[in-house]
Specification:
The chain is an alpha/beta fold. It contains 16 helices and 14 strands. The protein has 2 domains: about 150 residues, 3-Layer(aba) Sandwich (Rossmann fold), CATH 3.40.50; about 220 residues, Aldolase class I (TIM Barrel, Alpha-Beta Barrel). The chain has a 6-stranded parallel sheet, sandwiched between helices. A 6-stranded parallel sheet has the order 7-10-11-12-13-14. The N and C termini lie far apart (about 60 Å). About 45% of the residues are buried. Bound molecules: cobalamin and iron/sulfur cluster.
């Protein structure tokens, strides 16, 4: 059997000892890390399954966020998942494994949107989704006829053919919160988002029975596992979400998901979600400054909903589901008052969590094109593209002010007093619910 390594390289970060932001102190680095959901990157488990099915490979999966990479191990085939901030490390590892005699494949988001760059470092690159192309590659590779590029047209993969991910390969320390994807796509098309360059415009769902099988498989490796439904927007297809929740409501499952704010306007859906075990949703609120939201997504959905943000968050949280709001600081309409506005918004709404990022134009997005055209990109060193490190010149403030403000927002919302206030709010909401 040939040895195949499916590898998710870690993001090296902007400097040797700074993972997220080159200017900020180490305690803020730790806070950013603590605020993150730790999840083993799920795409490689799909490729693992398809490779296992050929019965020709001994498959190993490594996500460097969870496992140490043993550089003494030898493989015939090494395939890596790339996002923009791990691309440079992936290229370095590609050179290393090629020198060791391995055949190297690169895929995932970054290799898809920067294929001309990625191809210089790999024997083969896989553009886009790979349910159809990876098995073809494996056949070609077996016959020594592998092509340089395999490319999947956008939006054509039928998710009924997406195999059960090889959850059994997950390392022990990655079995607490496990990713399951139930659909691909999102109706909004935000300017800063890479989704459409990977999945196209269509919204595609998996069959409920297949999702159910995936949940059962996760429970087999850890009966207490929590599930993170990684769909980019779980509740945007109401019927699919309801069928899913009906199915899982008997399971005593705890689960998290990503959503847009329209979830907060649908009390029936919120109650079903709570009942079926949903305890946190991550929502891209993007900005506490409404001027930024106009035109941020295709139909200005976020701009139209801004006036209701607070009441919609209250609807969700009062039912016992914590909202993690995601914010981008340094958008084009932001001046220095955005920091106080963001702090006030977060404290006011008693958001369960806040994911504070800075405006980062990822290649392949409309935002990236606009920043290139305006000559505002400060560096093309992908290690700096962590979403917590300024890489463009903000319009209405300096980079220094953006960093100072970022620090202040993080310190304020994470102060022990503010965390205590928030926890008291949740205790009160939950005790009211029980009455
Ligand atoms: C869940 C999730 C996470 C989880 C898990 C990590 C992960 N990458 O999945 C967590 C919370 C840890 C996370 C962290 C980060 N994430 Co994230 N994440 C997602 C999300 C919402 C869903 C991914 C998912 O569930 N995939 C399910 C699998 C089955 O689908 P898939 O990944 O598309 O896999 C298919 C293809 O891509 C391909 N493929 C996948 N792996 C491989 C490997 C090889 C070798 C090959 C050939 C092909 C291939 O084939 C698969 C089957 O068709 C995506 C959005 C998205 N849909 O991609 C963002 C996304 C990948 N994340 C993003 C970002 C920015 C990050 C972070 C950098 C944020 C940060 N600073 O921490 C880190 C990077 C960490 C990392 N190693 O990926 C961006 C990446 C943009 C970019 N250009 O880099 C995305 C695209 C979000 C967006 N809307 O723009 N993320
Ligand atoms: S709502 Fe979220 S997933 Fe959908 S396009 Fe916007 S950023 Fe991407």
């Amino acid at each position: 059997m040939k040895r195949l390594l499916l590898l998710v390289p870690k993001c090296d970060g902007p400097t040797e000892n700074k993972k997220w932001n080159e200017y900020l102190s180490n305690d803020i680095e730790d806070l950013v890390t603590q605020n993150m959901w730790r999840i083993f990157t799920p795409g490689v488990l799909v490729l693992a399954k398809l490779a296992e099915e050929t019965k020709m490979y001994e498959v190993q999966v490594v996500d460097e966020e969870f496992q140490e990479l043993d550089m003494t191990e030898k493989y015939e085939l090494v395939a890596m998942y790339t996002v923009t901030p791990n691309a440079k490390r992936a290229y370095k590892l590609a050179e290393y494994y090629k020198q060791q005699g391995a055949y190297v494949v690169l895929g995932g988001v970054h290799a898809t949107v920067c294929s001309d760059e990625a191809i210089k470092h790999a024997d083969t690159i896989m553009i886009g989704e790979t349910e159809y192309t990876w098995p073809i590659f494996l056949k070609d590779y077996k016959m020594n006829m592998a092509k340089k590029i395999y490319s999947q047209p956008l939006g054509e993969v039928d998710l009924d053919y997406s195999p059960m991910p090889s959850f059994h390969l997950l390392p022990e320390n990655a079995r607490k919160l496990v990713a399951i994807q139930t659909a691909r796509g999102c109706p909004h098309g935000c300017k800063f988002c890479n989704l459409r360059s990977l999945y196209g415009k269509q919204y595609r769902t998996k069959k409920i029975e297949n999702i159910d099988k995936e949940i059962q498989a996760v429970k087999q490796i850890n009966p207490l596992a929590m599930i993170y439904f990684t769909d980019d927007n779980l509740f945007c297809h109401e019927e699919h979400a309801k069928l899913l929740m009906q199915k899982i409501s008997t399971y005593n499952l705890t689960w998290y998901a990503n959503s847009d704010i329209s979830f907060g306007a649908n009390m029936e859906l919120i109650k079903m979600a709570y009942k079926s075990g949903c305890r946190q949703v991550l929502i891209g609120l993007e900005s506490a400054n409404s001027a930024n939201l106009k035109g941020l997504d295709e139909n200005s959905f976020k701009s139209r909903n801004y006036v209701n943000y607070k009441s919609l968050i209250e609807n969700i949280q009062s039912c016992g589901i914590g909202v993690i709001g995601s914010f981008i600081l340094g958008l084009d309409e932001d001046n220095e008052d955005i920091f106080d506005k963001t702090i006030d918004f977060i404290l006011d709404t008693k958001l369960y969590g806040a994911n504070i990022t800075v405006n980062t134009p990822y290649p392949g997005t409309l935002n990236f094109k606009a920043m290139c055209d305006d000559n505002r990109i400060l560096t093309y060193d992908w290690n700096h593209y962590t979403i917590f490190n300024p890489v463009i010149k903000p319009k209405k403030m300096t980079v220094e002010k953006l960093n100072e403000g970022y620090l202040r927002v993080m310190k304020t919302i994470n102060s022990s007093q503010n965390i205590k206030n928030k926890m008291n709010y949740f205790k009160e909401k939950l005790s009211n619910k029980e009455k």
